[in-house]
## 1
Amino acid sequence: MLQVRELHVRYGNVRAVQGVSIEVRSGEIVVLIGANGAGKTSMLNAIAGIVRPAAGFISFQGEIITGLPAHRVIDRGIVQVPEGRLIFTGLTVRENLRLGAYRVKERGDPAQAMEQALHNFAELRPRLDEPASALSGGQQQMLAIARGLMARPRLLLLDEPSLGLAPRAVQAVFRLVRTLRGEGITVLLVEQNVRQALQIADRGYVLEGGTVILSGTGRALLAHDLLVSSYLGITQHGKGQS
Ligand SMILES: Nc1ncnc2c1ncn2[C@@H]1O[C@H](COP(=O)(O)OP(=O)(O)OP(=O)(O)O)[C@@H](O)[C@H]1O
Ligand SMILES: [Mg+2]
């Protein structure tokens, strides 16, 4: 479904991504893992058309999309939920959701799109006319994902959706990702919550310094020595254990 070949992303002299190749097949959950600064967000931004790659190519459903502007990428069915959620806290929940549909107005009824987007978000429905600032962190993340769904993605790019959330909200995010996959949405997930991400992922890639140092099935990566020592060993002391 998505193929990224030999991708390079640079910011001036900073080489954020250096020749990364990844693949996401239809119906998969694929996770990108890596320390701060490894290049994870740069990968998603390049796929979403937010940054223009310095080299390499990206194809989606058999068509090259490298260098397309972000709104054209959304039109093809790739929607990114950015790092840090970027909810408009001064707007209501409903207004935030409507912003997610701005590209698809011509394709259908926004009210219907909202119904469709909300069916996995029972907690948001009674709060549609409240300001987004009244929501908890977990609910704001749910709103950010629901807003992304308003554009009816085929491929959803999620950048650290569990960051900063309480353990229960983290669980809810991972449960939602599985539900969405069950509804036919393919997911490319960036996560630092490595254990839980690998438990729901079909496959994963580990980035370090802008290159892929390891890849495999979620199960294989969970058992891999390098991950156990450098990522999973640390999270074992955390309280998010399931
Ligand atoms: N707009 C920018 N201008 C200059 N350098 C940048 C910019 N964005 C990212 N970088 C640098 O590129 C590298 C990769 O950053 P990126 O945000 O892709 O990493 P990341 O894996 O998402 O990290 P994090 O876990 O902190 O979100 C880092 O060295 C970062 O400092
Ligand atoms: Mg990032």
Note: Residues 2-235 form a domain with the Rossmann fold fold (CATH 3.40.50.300).
## 2
Amino acid sequence: MPEPMGEYAFLRRNDEVSVERLSVQGRMPEWLQGTLLRNGPGQMTVGEQRFRHWFDGFAMLHKFSFAAGRVSYAGKFLDTKARASAEAEGRITYTDFATDPCRSLFARAMAMFNHRVTDNAKVSIGHFAERFLAMTETAIQVEFDPETLDTVGVFQYEDDPVGQMTTAHPHYADGYMYNVVTRFGRASEVRTYRVDQRMRRERLGAFGAATPSYMHSFGMTPNHLIVTEFPLVVNPLALLFWLKPFIENFAWEPRRGTPFTVLDRHTGAVAARFEAEAFFAFHHVNAFERGRELIVDIVAYPDADIVTHYYLERLTAADLRLPHGRLTRFTVPLSGGRVRAEPLADACIELPHIDYAGHNMDPEQRYTYGIGLHSERPHEFYNQLVKIDTRTGTTATWHEPDCFPGEPIFVSAPDRRGEDDGVLLSVVLDAAGARSFLLVLDAHDLQERARAVLPQAVMIGFHGAFVGAPDAS
Ligand SMILES: [Fe+2]
């Protein structure tokens, strides 16, 4: 990893700033109207303490508004108990993904009875039923105002929490928001549920899991939910005593393989369970049905080493060599048999994104976008944008020296002529320039259309969402 990146990518706390009009190079498409919202860490240090992992930092929201070729920007921290308490006490006080507060043995014992679940929702943005939610892997979702980025508060569903660990990647279809949640206990369960337009949560199916898996996402087709239990598993007792940071309670046990559990999306009934070779993933991409088969595209790794590579100590080391995630197509034979896996491309990819609104669950969906690694600079953090054509396995890329792009978000052109007729929006850290810029690429050939320069270097974030202006097509 290059020296210049270390500080700007993860360590330098971001400022809450607002800019009416960013300086634009190139030409913003006139038709691009709406708002890009992004979530990710904005602060990794509290006093002398530092969070340990990319997935730990305090949530910061970023907003880019587009109108008539102009772009405005604002960044604001999510107002959470976890951050307020840390700022007040000058130390980390809530446990997060891979960082625990310093605790005496007595305090650790007390934590068994009085465990404080963090509300630091720094992973993704949910937009559902006119609400905007900052989401993470604890079952706490924080509502915010998309205009001001002010925090409204933890969204309270009417029912009790359905579990402690969920995914930051719900699926949306037919007016519902679907998700999977794990309930740890003496008899742990993986539960599925859906939320309706009145924000009422309805439980769907569930199945037992003696040693639950770490799951960051799941698959959905028109008729099925697909839960992949990677063999990165935890004994729920370990979480009860919580002697280590959350993720360090999980162990890689590849002999378990990676079972795929298929549930009926409408009734929740468990349809069947299928065996597959051991692999690990954060992200499911598209999934669809083809006759009596389910096709599930996943960014897969042979093991879970990627989790430990995201510790800041590793990310800021000179000999960084990130494991490559590969877009892999898994075929689930509903009539019986093992799950088959077939790589769709050689390229390294993470933070995968498709035209979800237009092509999720669509067998014709063809293009997957993401961040990746340039073959000539494999010792860096993700340093290019990649587009994979899943039919041909070919890729297009965008890269520049010392530039580290975030998740690309596809925005469709009005009256488009094809799946990739639109632009990709990505916040890129320009480490040499000590600032970030919002990059606008033609989604067809990944050629630059425009960039808007930010007043600061934005910490490398996770996921975002584009919300079209009401009057935009
Ligand atoms: Fe994610």
Note: The chain has one domain: 3-468.
## 3
Amino acid sequence: MPATPIRFDDGAAYELMMGRWSVLVGERFLDWLDVPDGARWLDIGCGNGAFTELLVNRCRPADVQAFDTSAEQLAYARTRLPAGAPVTWTEADAMRLPVADAASDAAVMALVLFFVPEPAVGVAEMCRAVRSGGVVAAYHWDVLGDGFPLAPIATEMLKLGVPPRMAPSSAASTLEASAALWQAAGLQQVRTCAITVQRTFDSFEDYWRSGEPSNTLRPMFEDMSAEEREMLKANVRRRLQAGDGPLTVSARANAVCGIKP
Ligand SMILES: C[S@@+](CC[C@H](N)C(=O)[O-])C[C@H]1O[C@@H](n2cnc3c(N)ncnc32)[C@H](O)[C@@H]1O
């Protein structure tokens, strides 16, 4: 039976679970990219706008065209920036962007490439859309190297015999695979870097609550009995050596960028 696709259908839940993590990586990613202010950006798979808002505040873009396939994520995104912000939000697929050729300075995917059914097609679309000399870039959790922020829960789930769902193109998320995709697309000056971030939660309970609405883990939680969920929770607490106070959790993303010839 084919796996149920991972759907993003609640922008507010996404904010609690992943939006804050994305911004932690996004800050470091934008410093690393170092695109000058005033650029015309494409933000592909913009989700609920967490990274888009960061982009607007940090890079003073002339224009951001933000795209996502989820109407619910876009509905949340449309509420988060003040009127007059230079952003347009459009429902569209990363593999068929409704944009002109070579009309943008930079195209990015923040935590998206591993969801795109054919990553090479998504990268080709970004290449088509940016001008010569423009930047094509992405960051994605190192899901195969336990870099996903909820990896401690996923690992303990697996030990209980419940395999967590993987994003369909997870193989594209390693540094090597990302660099190979960028090179195969004909991009030049391809660079990669691993970005490790830490997020401090008020308590273990706070971390656990942030994981419950996760698009990848929620269906597994729903299929477990109350006893199994309690056992899982105890195992995750032990794994993280969590006490009664604040809990700091690390995560790692892989970033890649290149220049269109
Ligand atoms: C993990 S979220 C990242 C959201 C945002 N970029 C961020 O950094 O918080 C992944 C997003 O990619 C979107 N997505 C998945 N497949 C897509 C596709 N083929 N084209 C466009 N967006 C897609 C999902 O709807 C979801 O909002």
Note: The domain at 11-144+166-198+252-259 is CATH 3.40.50.150 (Rossmann fold).
